[in-house]
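Q: Hi! Curious about what CBS domain-containing protein looks like structurally. Here's the sequence.
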Amino acid sequence: MKNEDINQFCLKEASTVRECMEVINQNKQGIALVVNPQGRLIGTVTDGDIRRFILAARSLEEPVSNVMWTNPLTAPLGTSEEEVKELMNKYMVRNIPIIDKKGRPRNLMTITDLVSEKSDCQTAVIMAGGEGKRLRPITEKIPKPMLNIGDKSIIENIINAFVEIGIEKIYISVNYKAKVIEDYLKKYASQGVKIEYLEEHKKLGTAGALTLLPEAPSRPFIVINADIVTKTNFARLIEFHNQHRCVMTVAATQFEFNIPYGVLNLSGHYLLGIQEKPEQKLLCNAGIYMINPEVLPVIPKDTEFNMTDLINELVRKGLPLTTFPIHEYWIDIGKMEDLEKAKDDIKDS
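A: Let's find out. The predicted structure is below.
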């Protein structure tokens, strides 16, 4: 990035994939530059590389060399902005490291340095109709989306993240304590944020509420549950969805657990081996989705229909879906323990 300290993008070749992921999350430009002990650029790793690595069920403790591109596109120091822009267009990349004669990175030119980008996604839907029964008695007076995590409520953090990436229209599906939520968010009108409400007079589920949209968005749109606290890079989600040309992208978070017993490997009745207390890694639904408008007619009207139902129906129809693994912070506020953990996490971050 122009005029920024290049060191924030660099990491040593002895680093792990996890350390690389942390560099990418901190610099927020979707790229890390891997350098050798002499400071020479030997590879690059993008945000997409990390997510594909996770999808392949690889370990984040592997060396960064297992995921990096060893022949990255670069430009020499002194290359004009126009020349860099031409390279980006030709090779369809978002970042180009600028290197000196010794191959050391001295700058990083990004697409946002050269072009005023507008997101392909202009619409988002926040599902905020739940009752938050497992958080009672707190939610008897305050709807779960309005609970504070740090200095802002859960729903404000979501709205602010959408505004930051240029989302122009935000729909909020409401049912339980709808008026309380609408009154609470009136302040956004004075800030120029367009918010409309989808009134659920009966529970329609996390997908059924989409039938209340006054018109189908013209482009793919984001849907998120209002009880999610996350630092997910929504711009990367949009980019990922567009690149994979699927009708729906389901964001996923990695859940890890240890089986406390020896697991038997069987073939019929024959025992082939035993693995002592193995660690399992599963990708689980994160409650965040990118959806193409042509999916909407699949959702039945005036019926409770959840995202799980929609996913299964699209799979049954043979339509292409993809998964966007989240490596940023994510937590679902379902129970009191989740709420307290999120508050502690934000306090410590």
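A: A fun detail: The chain has two domains: 6-114, 123-348.
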